[in-house]
């Protein structure tokens, strides 16, 4: 039997007179479950209005809690994050939000953004003028199939 992590468990002590199967010419050892390559499991730290909050690393140095927002197109950071990361804003974009149809936001680039072993170099980030927590949007995870569970998020490479 395998546990929830895919590790083999010996349950022989539960069965009387249990012995391994006798050798037969067509018998093959069962393959142990192995975690798929290209699967990244990220713990959910909390939730805000049902949206998972995870740790996201910027510039290989700074870790911020961000909401994993499947409805956000881009990576959106707060003004405090932009200041800490020293983002050089290169332009303005017009964005639609749930509360406003057109909002001007500054856009720039950071060295890197990463979650677990997934990382992007030089991604565009948008600085929101009034947000308290950043959003990790589809521009980061669009190359992955994602499963949101109760306590973790699984990213699978496509």
TrEMBL record:
Molecular function in Gene Ontology: aspartic-type endopeptidase activity
Domain of life where this protein originates: Bacteria
Entry's Gene Ontology BP terms: proteolysis
Record region (Disordered): 1-29
Keywords: Hydrolase, Protease
Key word Repeat present: no
Record carries keyword Transmembrane: no
Name of the protein: Retroviral-like aspartic protease family protein
């Amino acid at each position: 039997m395998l546990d929830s992590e895919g590790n083999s468990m010996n349950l022989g002590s539960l069965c009387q007179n249990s012995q391994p199967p006798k050798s037969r010419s067509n018998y093959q050892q069962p393959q142990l479950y192995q975690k798929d390559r290209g699967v990244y499991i990220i713990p959910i730290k909390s939730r805000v209005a049902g949206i998972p909050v995870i740790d996201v690393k910027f510039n290989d140095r700074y870790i911020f809690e961000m909401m994993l927002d499947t409805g956000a197109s881009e990576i959106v950071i707060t003004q405090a994050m932009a200041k800490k990361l020293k983002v050089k804003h290169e332009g303005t974009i017009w964005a639609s939000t749930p509360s406003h149809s057109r909002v001007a936001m500054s856009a720039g680039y950071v060295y890197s953004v990463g979650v677990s072993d997934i990382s992007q170099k030089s991604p565009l980030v948008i600085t929101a003028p009034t947000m308290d927590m950043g959003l990790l949007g589809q521009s980061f995870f669009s190359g992955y199939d994602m499963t949101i569970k109760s306590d973790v998020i699984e990213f699978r490479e496509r």
